Amino acid sequence: MMFLSIIFFVLVTHVGFVMPTGELKPKNIFLLAGQSNMAGRGGIYNDTKTNLHKWDGKVPPQCTPTPNILTLSLNKTWEIAREPLHKEIDNLKTCGVGPGMPFSNQILAKHPDFGVIGLVPCAVGGTKIEKWQKGTILYNQLVDRARAARQYTSGNIRALLWYQGESDCGERDSRLYMGRLERFFNNLRHDLDSPDLPILLVVISAGEGNFLRNIRDAQLNINLKNVVHVDAMGLTLLPDHLHLDTKSAVRIGQKLADDFLYNFYH
């Protein structure tokens, strides 16, 4: 009995092991990656008393938890997803409402028979595309969590949802952005043994620097198969003029869902 307990402990603590949690197993897996607008900043405000960022705790109906939407926790167990979805992954920042929950609820509203959705949060605020290149901490974490998500389920990785680029709006980074982004997508598809992995690419509408147009052009002109562009232009922002407010986080999530269903679900 002691020996079996030791074996069980080793399995549970292994980096790639997903501990089964009852019947909580997704059929459809979606990877969420990028920076803060994917992690979610909807409802974040600056507390003037403490000068700290806080979340207002308001969960819109489009983000309502359901047993049909799961999330892969930091320790790789499937749990019922709820806002803030990225609080364990983007844990050095204050997270709020993001696109993941409204994306999932929109799919289920339009196709109730779609099956249980499993979200794999991997986004981290303030990260440039160079921080997502093959061999980096963020890249390795994304690949590890993606592999773990499908290892002990019958689910398939249906798509990568990618929302990033705000931190690359400087002159040099913007010039290198397209090549870095294409290399990241190609490497990820290769390492996940999924050469045709659908990618839903959010075209950013705000950035930290003077070269937003360059990043938008790079994203709009990326020349890879199964990459669909979802434009964030026109969505409303928080007072920092960088992050989506709750209403817009919900809207971009719904747009991502609609584009996934139109292009990849038949």
UniProtKB/TrEMBL annotation:
Signal sequence coordinates: 1-20
UniProt keyword terms in alphabetical order: Hydrolase, Signal
InterPro entries xref list: Carb_Esterase_6, SASA, SGNH_hydro_sf
Signal recorded as keyword: yes
Keyword Hydrolase part of the UniProt annotation: yes
Residue intervals of the Sialate O-acetylesterase domain: 27-261
GO MF, one example: hydrolase activity
Domain of life: Eukaryota
PANTHER family: ESTERASE, PUTATIVE (DUF303)-RELATED (PTHR31988)
Protein name: Sialate O-acetylesterase domain-containing protein
